Structure formats: structure tokens, C-alpha cells
Amino acid sequence: MTRRRLLRSLWIAGSTATMFTWFGAVNAAEPDPKVMSVALPKDIKWTLGEAGNYESVLYGDPSKPGLYIVLTKWTPGKMSRPHFHPNDRYITVISGTWWAGKGPKFDPNSTTPLGPGSYMLHPAGEIHYDGAKDVEAIVEIKGIGPAPSIPAAEKR
What CATH architecture is 46-154? Predict the structure, then answer.
């Protein structure tokens, strides 16, 4: 390699390193709340739900009419008992493995495992149960409220 080619290669490598250093030094800006509302994981407030799961309401109010979006965190070994909802619910698994079962008989061994990115529709009035087995699972639930969980025994 000639001296000239060697110097050019070193100059390009140095320029590239400087460019990546410069890009790495760029600070992130705070979002304008008029343009976007942001909640980082560290800012999400969780409350203990009725079934032993943790919930965070991201949008709306599931107890009132209108659209709601809720994150639900299931700790290992926690599952709901058979129940239904008066409206459709749209669920996306965010992390972990979420286990879903159907029917009025609680049988965790007959549940279906759903991993991150999986989607499920819980149709209105259909009895189901769900939760986590070995690992924590976080799901995002969307629907139209009010959205009570009605025990399967109350279905007529």
C-alpha cells in the first residue's frame, strides 16, 4: 500500500470515527406536550387489580363509556378465574408469555401460550381466563367501556 493510500484510509477512518462520536453526543429533546404525550416505562404507575394482576390505565377509563387502553402485568403464577366482558376486548402481548383459556371450567393446563407480539380478540360475552405461569407477562388491552369483569357464574 502506498503512503498516499494509507494516509487516505486513516483520514477516512478518523472522519468516520469523528462522525459517529458527533452523532453519539447528540442529546435527545423533550417532546412538546402539544404534539405528543410520552410515558417511559419508568414513569408508568401500576396499581394492584382485582385478580392479583397489576394495571396501568394509559388512556380513558375502563369503568366509563368510551375508548380505553390498559396495560396489565401478570406476575408468575397469577391467573384470573373464568369471566366475561360485555364488550369486545383487543389484546396484544407486550412481553413474557400470556396464557389464555376458554370456558367456565378453570383449567390452566388447557390454556394457550401467547408470546410477545401476539394478538387476541376476546369477543363480548365469551367466558375466558388468562394470566401468567412461569414468567411475568405484560399485555395491552383496548376496548370500549364500561368494561367490568363479570364472573362466569353470573352468565345466564
Answer: Sandwich (2.60)
